[in-house]
Design brief:
By secondary structure, this protein is of the alpha/beta class. It has a single domain, classed as Dihydropteroate synthase-like (TIM Barrel, Alpha-Beta Barrel), CATH 3.20.20. 40% of the residues lie in helices and 15% in strands. The chain has nine helices and eight strands. Strands 6-5-4-3-2-1-8-7 form an eight-stranded parallel beta sheet. α2 packs parallel to α3, α3 runs parallel beside α4 and α8 crosses α9. The longest helix has 17 residues. The radius of gyration is 17 Å and the shape is globular. The termini are far apart. The relative contact order is 0.15. The N terminus is likely disordered.
């Protein structure tokens, strides 16, 4: 494993993320219960709050990655997703759809999604063509197991920076060849194999944060997830690390914490 390197002095300047991606979960089985909404009223309340806290894009997910969650199919994912997506678009929000299903990608784009947060390994050519035709942004996630369901029973894959490049590089080129205008890469700080213990997980996450320039070789903006740790101080610390790492996009359940950190970092 690549040992974490201490941040350089340059990283200690005030961080300025470009875009906050605020999470809304439509999956009641999600472990992050405070981001789960049930019904239109809760949906609009959370959307308004995320927007007020600086989230330029709302990330709408309908299938939980929680290792113990019941598995659902594409039809159920879309049943949960489409009414909420339509209402948020009607209210004027920019909405990203979080999915690993190429079919759901196509359906979401037809419904008007402005970005796709693709959390699977392989996106079908027809889905890439749909992203390009819609002029949507595409976020590509490091996912060597195929998707979060298959990861549950898969043998752990070593989490290495070279592995990230080898996995993401061809997918970036595939998306560009398909005509996708904006490709964003996500080294996946949140969906790490469930067999990894807490100490190992933090070490793996930091090994990416302190070596982010390696991933910039792909020439894409970088999205980092400000992982929701179970203890408040741990969440603050990890969010601060993500900020100082220099992410271009930050995906968060708690943008108020990001704003508080930015305020604290201002001279």
């Amino acid at each position: 494993m690549l040992a974490p390197e201490p941040p350089s002095f340059a990283l200690m300047s005030t961080p300025h993320p470009r875009t906050l991606l605020g999470v809304i979960n439509l999956s009641p089985e999600s472990m992050v219960s405070d981001s789960v909404v049930a019904g239109t009223e809760q949906l609009l309340q959370r959307a308004a709050w995320l927007h007020s806290q600086g989230c330029a894009v709302l990330d709408l997910g309908a299938r939980s990655i929680t290792p113990t969650a019941a598995m659902i199919d594409d039809a159920e994912e879309q049943r949960r997703l489409l009414p909420a997506l339509g209402r948020l678009l009607q209210e004027g929000y920019r909405v990203s759809v979080d999915t690993w299903s190429s079919q759901t990608v196509r359906v979401a784009l037809e419904a008007g999604a402005t970005a796709i947060n693709f959390t699977g390994a392989d996106i079908e050519p027809s889905a890439l063509a749909a992203v390009a035709a819609a002029g949507a942004s595409l976020m590509l996630t490091y996912m060597p197991y195929g998707d979060a369901y298959r990861m549950r029973t898969a043998t752990p894959v070593p989490y290495r920076l070279q592995g990230l490049l080898d996995h993401l590089g061809p997918r970036v080129e595939q998306a560009r060849a398909a005509g996708v205008g904006e490709v964003i890469i996500d080294p996946n700080l949140g969906i790490i194999h469930p067999a990894t213990d807490d100490v190992g997980k933090i070490q793996l996450q930091n090994s990416v944060l302190w070596n982010l320039d390696v991933l910039r070789k792909l020439g894409c903006p970088i999205l980092l997830y400000a992982a929701r740790k179970p203890e408040r101080l741990a969440r603050i610390l990890f969010a601060s690390n993500v900020l100082f790492a220099g992410a271009d996009w930050i995906r968060t359940h708690h943008p108020d914490m990001i704003q508080a950190l930015l305020t604290a970092a201002t001279p």
